[in-house]
Structure formats: structure tokens, C-alpha cells
Amino acid sequence: MVLALCATPVVALLLVVTLLPLPFVVAYPGATVDVLGDVEGESVIEISGTEIRDPDGELRMTTILATPPDADIRLSEVVSGYFSDDRAVMPRDAVYPPGRNTEEIRDYTTGQMLDSQRAAVTAALTLVEGRTGAGPDLPEDLGELDIELRLEDVGGPSAGLLFALGVVELLDGDGEGGDLTGGRVIAGTGAIAPDGRVGSVGGVPLKTRAADRDGAEVFLVPSAECAEANRSAPDGLRVIPVSTLTDAVRALEALESGDPVPTC
Fold first, then answer.
1. DSSP structure class, residue 244
2. Looking at 80, 158, 223, 232, which residue is catalytic?
3. Do 191 and 161 meet the contact criterion of CB atoms below 8 Å apart?
4. 232 catalytic, yes or no?
5. How far apart are CA 257 and CA 142, in angstroms?
6. Per-block mean pLDDT, blocks of 10 residues, the chain (264 long)
7. Rounded to 5 degrees, what are φ and ψ at 209?
8. Distant-in-sequence contacts of 109-116, Cβ < 8 A, 24+ apart
9. What pTM was estimated for this model as a whole?
């Protein structure tokens, strides 16, 4: 009887924990998008004011799918997610800014994406302008170009690196008449600053799985998330760490030429 009475509060507590929603989100590998291609008939990167290249290969930005910030996540989902390879459980505040409702969060992540697109264009044009003898068919003032990046229903800054690489590829390739991709399917993730610095983004293990699922051979990852990406990357997916846009370009050029390439 004593044991039974003592156990009652414990059982009640377990029932409460099991039934109450917890402050987590469940995330899954999301879609990947080739920034050199089209989505619903529209180019992801539209450049006016000059002829653009028609490269082979793909540059795929990667995403994760996460349950909404107001979703009720139960203990059973947290436990099953911990032991799963195809989903992850993360603290809600690590995915969504705290203290905001769903509409405010959507506006916030959309703003992050727009800021990332502007930074990507600035970083890409700076790199192309800095190449010696690069882009003989490009206008003298690249600032005259009209560059529009289109990607609906994706928020956050993590596509910045791939957007910047896409602009470089379409305008100038490797700077010597070849493609940055070398005809490969290149995937990756990373926020980007206007000066070309690449920042961490989160969700890397799920993004490596999305990249592998969609045929990528190479995954570009922010250097700070290199070890995490390497631990989770599927067999056969080559993970390359980068700290700047220039690092990413040089790594892809080295991959094509057979020179040493950074690794995690």
C-alpha cells in the first residue's frame, strides 16, 4: 500500500508530461531547389542587362520542414524523433524567434530571405568584379544589371551562399569560360554577408539527407558546422567546408581541376 501510494504522484506526473504539449518542433528534410533552374516556369535567378551563361550542372539550396510554432508536440514525438535518422527534434526557440505569433514569424523569416538575397547579389558582383580579365562580355558597371531572385514559400537566410554562387555561375562561371559546377549536382547551405562571409544556419544533418536524396554529389557547409555535417552526411556525399564565397568558388574550381579540396 505504501509503495502504491508513493507511486501515484509519479504516475500522475508521467501522464501529465506525456499529454502536455512541449516547447519543441519536429523537423524533416525539406525540398531542394536548383537556383540555376526554374520553379513553376520562372527562373529562380533572373538577370537582365547582359547575356547570361547556360551552365551544365546544378546548384541546389536545401531546406528543412518544421512543424508550425503553435503545433502541439507530445513526449512520444520527442522520444521517437531522438532515435530517428529522418527527422530531428529541436527547441522551439532555436527554430522560431520567441515571443512572436505565427504571422509575425512568417514576416520575420521572409525579411531574412530578402536580406539574404540582397547580400548574395552584392557578394557575387563584388567577386566577379574582382576577377582579373573576367567577364569580357559583361557591362563595365555590373551595378547596372537588374538581378531578381525568386523563391516562394521559403524563409530564412540559409539560401544566401547558393544564391551568390548562382549569380557568379550565370554571369562568369569559373572566370575562364567553364562552369563552377563542372556539370555536377552541388548542394549546400549557408547565410551570406555582403562582404562574402558565410555564416551558420542550423538543420545541417537534415539538409545533407535532402541533398543526397536529390542526387547531390557535393555539399557546401559553413565551416562552423563542418563536424556536424560530416557526422550526419550519407555515404558518398562529399562535404566541403567554406568560410567565404571565395572559399566556395575556389573549392569548386579545385574539385574540377583535381587539386586538393578542403574537407571536414
1. B
2. 158
3. yes
4. no
5. 28
6. 46 43 81 95 94 95 87 73 73 79 84 93 95 69 91 86 97 92 97 97 93 97 94 93 98 95 90
7. -70, -40
8. 109/155, 109/156, 110/155, 112/155, 112/156, 112/157, 113/151, 113/154, 113/155, 113/156, 113/157, 113/159, 115/157, 116/156, 116/157, 116/158, 116/159, 116/160, 116/163, 116/191, 116/192
9. 0.86
Q: Is 255 exposed, middle or buried (0-12, 13-18, 19+ CB in 10 A)?
A: buried
Radius of gyration of the chain, Cα coordinates, nearest whole angstrom:
22
Evaluate whether residue 14 is within a structural domain. yes
∠ CA 115-107-121, nearest 5°, is 15
Report if residue 153 sits inside a domain.
yes
164 three-state secondary structure: helix
Cell numbers for 213: 536524396
Number of domains into which the chain is organized: 1
Which one of the listed residues 43, 76, 200, 207 is annotated catalytic? 207
Set of cell numbers at residue 113: 530571405
| CATH classification of the domain holding 60 | 3.30.230.10
116 is catalytic: no
Burial class (CB in 10 A: 0-12, 13-18, 19+), 117: buried
State how far the alpha carbon of 49 is from the alpha carbons of 25, 129, 196, in Å. Answer: 44, 16, 23
